[in-house]
Amino acid sequence: MSGADGLPRCVLVANRGEIASRIMRTCRRLGVGTVAVYSDADRSAPHVAYADRAVRIGAAAAADSYLHIPALLEAARSSGADAVHPGYGFLSERADFAQAVVDAGLTWIGPPASAIEELGDKVSARRLAIASGVPVAEGVEEDEGDAALSSAIEEMGLPVMIKAAAGGGGRGMRLLRTSDDAPDGIEAAVAGARREAQAAFGDGRLLVERAMSEGKHVEVQVLFDEHGNGVHLGERDCSVQRRRQKVIEESPSPAVSDVMREELGRAALDVCRAAGYVGAGTVEFMLMPDGAFMFLEVNTRLQVEHPVTEMLTGLDLVELQLRVAGGDTLPVTTDDITSNGHAIETRIYAEDPSRGYVPSTGRLRWFEALDGRARHDVGPATGDLVTAHYDPMLAKTIVHAETRGEALDRATEALDAWAIDGVTTNLGQLASILESEDFRAGSVDIGWLDRVELQQREPPAAALAAAAVAEAQAGAWRSSGELARKYLLHGRPLEVRVSRTTDGWSAVVDGVEHDPVDLGRDWTADVSPRGVVVRHNDQRWVFLRERRRRTGAGRSRTAGANVVRAPMPGTMIEVLVAVGDEVEAGQTLAVMEAMKIEHLLSAPNAGVVKMVHTSAGASVDEDAVLIELGATS
User: What is the pLDDT at residue 353?
Assistant: First the structure.
């Protein structure tokens, strides 16, 4: 049911947020109609407004909407769509969804269900890699329950990585480097990974592999058509990770030579070809310090980080997905593909790195990317509510330059030009990573972000001074005295005091006096009720006005060291203690789920459980008191 040129007539995008909008942009350019689907939480989301048609598919919970196959198929039928693109996450790697789409007479824009089943399952993919002559890590493939698997781990010895056999994206994973990473025992860690895998993918099977914390995470983008032709488009380096999820990606990898690139590409093509692959996919490897590489897994879908490959090659991967799904032959071979310059992608999350990456929710009072030279793939818009129902990623910023050094500078400038107010983000951490010596040297591995303490960036004093002077000139200036202004740059509070002198404006930034500031041709600043945007040459900084931080219904988070509160809105998975239990400091007391991730809530100190205010299955608000402790007798 495709058009004369092999393209579908109308694509239903079975996803939300930035990937839904990104897929629709290509469809619109090609003249292909689009259908958005939305949950009750996304009724006014940008991807809904952007599509030609939109269909409600259920309540806010993903299980009732974006993971509900009958609702998605009915949306395709009622809207007249003849094809389905799954994006990434949700049902994108579910073989039963791919088969259901085909059985409904629709075009599935992805690999065949048989390839998803074989490669999307980490156990069978591992066995296929071995059969293809691709090296793999030591591991335990048989999963006969929590007790048996934990015994196998103890026999194998730490460090290990526990992985969900189905799905990806860091869900259902536990890295056990030492016994400290399993404070409640290995079996409890196995049980937690299984719960998260079951919740995320509907499949609780697990695989255990030897953890390699000193290696680099490198992946290869591949494309196949149904005629047996396959190409690889080079590698991406995804070694900067938190909670086993990627934070920054770049291409090419600073650790991969031309010879190794061809070896990795050949291995990736061999594994996928053996599974009868069609469409876009990514084969992930661990690159060891001695130059050896090992197969990790295959992501049978488009990756979050696919834009860096597009920036280097000039190819639109979504367009190629659409054409291959319609039966077209790949228009390029590996020899035809040229890779130019260097590209870097930074993922902007609604989370607080200083609090263990706790997700942040709230209404976006200001959400705007002001650097027009970068590519910004965004999900929400100003005024939207960031909820606990979905992944905390808000946007991706991608830059391209002739050299890696230039790309690093451009990426930092692009981050400084983001205006985000209403939720806490990782913008400051991203900029600190890009400016760190280790990252600039290309020497980071997958355990680096967990090991290092990033240096806080020096505030751009001249830009801060310009912001305060602009506010003074805009009418805030009093006829005499000093003007004090407090700003936030990537969540960091900064104070500026300015006063007028015979030479211009004197500025004191964080207690340090700076030369007089002249807002002439070189420095410009726009003042708004929410902040100040400062421009200097090609650079731009956004300084938000500092707001008083909410501490939850007027209560102080620090009040009562014997209180365990919910760090964010979510659902209680398990309460592990009862009134009267004696607990130790750091002991896990409860498990909650928010933004598709399990969070362990631990005792702030030793004591006795006095009150339990929640239970398994309960929905809790941010800062809600869950458990109260008392002193031991």
Answer: 94
Given this model, what pLDDT does residue 554 score?
36
Q: What are phi and psi of 432, to 5 degrees?
A: -65, -35
- Cβ atoms within 10 A of the Cβ of 462, count? 18
| C-alpha dihedral (369, 372, 378, 381), degrees to nearest 10 | 50
List per-block mean pLDDT (blocks of 10 residues) for the chain, which spans 633 residues: 74 98 98 98 97 98 95 98 97 96 98 95 93 94 93 93 81 87 92 87 89 89 97 98 92 97 97 97 95 94 98 98 97 92 98 91 95 97 94 97 98 97 96 97 94 90 90 68 87 89 80 71 87 92 78 40 84 90 88 78 90 91 89 75
Burial classification of residue 536, based on how many CB atoms lie within 10 Å of its CB (0-12 exposed, 13-18 middle, 19 or more buried): middle
Query: Residue 58: which of 78, 77, 35, 42 has the closest Cα?
Result: 42
CA 361 – CA 595 distance, rounded (Å): 10
Count of Cβ atoms closer than 10 Å to residue 410 Cβ: 22
Which residues are bridge partners to 531 per DSSP?
544
Of 455, 401, 399, 398, the closest CA to residue 431 belongs to 455
Cα separation of 424 and 349, whole Å? 8
What is the crossing angle of helices 122-131 and 113-120, to 10°?
90
549, containing H or E segment? none
Q: Report d(CA 606, CA 291) in Å as an integer.
A: 47
Torsion sign (Cα): 390, 357, 288, 213: negative
Extract the tokens encoding 391.
Answer: 């992944």
Provide the pLDDT for residue 593.
Answer: 83
pLDDT of residue 255: 97
Q: How far apart are the first and last CA of the chain?
A: 74
Residue 131: CB partners within 8 Å, gap ≥ 6?
274
Q: Encoding tokens for residue 569? A: 């809105």
Give the HSE-up count for residue 129: Cα atoms under 13 Å, Cβ half-sphere.
24
461 three-class SS: helix
Torsion, Cα 141 147 150 154, to 10 degrees, reads -110
Q: Which residue has the tokens 């049911």?
A: 1
